[in-house]
Amino acid sequence: MSEKPIVPVVIDTNVLIPSIYSYTNIARFVYEGLLVLIWSNFTYREASEIIDRLAGYYMKKPGFRAEEAKVFLDYMVSVGRKVSDMPEDWPCVTKDRDDDNFLWAAIAGNAEYIITEDGSHMLALKEFRGIPIGTPKEFFRWVKQAHPMSKE
């Protein structure tokens, strides 16, 4: 028997939406309760808009359709941890103000990790106030070290 960790994370929409559409390990681990999605109204709206924008692209690939992706997003937020939207006076950290919303959510929701593919702004930080920032691959490497599973 192994004890599985439950890790609160912020998932940038550039990872979240492809993960939902293709049901990658990120989406699967949220579904299984191993990851807790930290989100705000801003991040939910952005995710919904991107689901719609990418619907045509993902229609040609195996996996979820837009309607199913929205249902899955709604499930993820229903079991996730909602935080307030970023205050207007929150200081600018990145060159893209929208990215600052993910940093805010990480602090407000006590995230252990920020998962992103944004090499221009987010990944360049490497961490924010002690919270590591990395790609999905880096996250899975990190989580194995930060939360080793005990085996009995």
What's the short version?
This protein has 152 residues and is of the alpha/beta class.
What are the low-pLDDT stretches, counting only 5+ consecutive residues below 50?
none
Range of strand content: 5-15%
CATH top level assignment: Alpha Beta
The quaternary state of the protein chains shown equals: single chain
- The SSE string, one letter per element, is EHHEHHHEHEHEEH
CA radius of gyration: 15 Å
Could you tell me the CATH topology label. Rossmann fold
Per CATH, the superfamily is 5'-nuclease
- Please work out how many helical segments DSSP would assign: 8
The count of strands amounts to: 6
Strands of the widest sheet, in order across it, are 3-2-1-4-6-5
Binned, the helix content reads: 40-55%
Query: Which structural class best describes the helix and strand composition?
Result: alpha/beta
Biggest β-sheet strands, sense, barrel: 6 strands, mixed
Reported CATH architecture: 3-Layer(aba) Sandwich
Q: What is the overall shape?
A: globular
How many angstroms separate the termini? 5 Å
Question: What's the structural domain tally?
Answer: 1
Mean pLDDT: 91
